[in-house]
Amino acid sequence: MDNKRGTHSRGALYGARLTRRGASMRMLLLALSCLLGAAGTAGAAGTTHMSDFINRKNCDQILDKGYYQICYNYSAKGARYVGYVLDGSKVNAGEIKKRPRFYPDMAIPAQYRTKSQDYTRNEFHADRGHLAPDASFDYSPKSLHAVYSMANIIPQYAGVNRRTWVKAERYERLVAVRLGHVSVINGVVYGPHPQRMKKSGIAYPEAYWKMLYDNKAFKRCFYYRNDNHAVIRGDTLRSHQVDCSQIE
To answer: 147: pLDDT confidence band, cut at 50, 70 and 90?
Structure first.
């Protein structure tokens, strides 16, 4: 999902780049100050590591994309976790305008691999939703290309992807700038019997979450339901904040 642009249609991507930030960015900066200033109860509970989530027990396959890691689930035909560390000096450095094409990740066995066409006219009307967001990695052609692997993509309800989850994606960049570096883990909740795209068999997630931490004094978690009943109007970042113990 493109967080500086907020939609995957190319015209909208470019248009949103030309009109980005403004009042919405001022609101996010205010939210950042409030959330960073609040006491982080989860931050004092102990250290968190990528390997707590991305490990051989949890993952059918671990993909190291250089800039981020993917814990891939064969049954879901999608990521279970995606983790990375954002460098605050880079997240707003490049902002490359031309977006790459989505590509199938050839490291994944063919029967579990997904391709961009699997999402075309899907019955859920789901977006190709980034877990490692392109707008956090558009500081170089190589980093941007890396996040267009289909292994980094899950079905996301369009309203959530473009209007609500996008705020958490912007927030991670603001935190990275404020703290210098921030670690991010994105988790996907499929449920015991997930719905699936009929054509491809890709599992449709029930929800997904984002954890930000620095193993010092900062830790924040945000949880999003992935359905068309999600409240879009009046949505705020804070309305999705949860105690990290609920998802760890």
So the answer is: very high
Distances (CA, A) of 90 to 11, 16, 111, 166, 195: 25, 20, 36, 19, 38
In angstroms, the CA 115 to CA 196 distance is 15
Six-digit token string for 148: 């267009």
Element (H, E) at 14: helix 10-19
| Distance between CA atoms of residues 98 and 96, nearest Å | 6
Q: Tell me which residue of 186, 187, 205, 185 sits closest to 76, measured CA to CA.
A: 205
In the chain, the domains with their CATH numbers are 10-246 (3.40.570.10)
Q: What's the pTM? A: 0.83
- Per-residue pLDDT of 161-210, as tens digits, reads 999 999 999 999 999 999 999 999 999 999 999 999 999 999 999 999 99
Q: Are strands 69-73 and 78-87 parallel, antiparallel or unpaired?
A: antiparallel
Span 45-54, pLDDT tens digits: 579 999 999 9
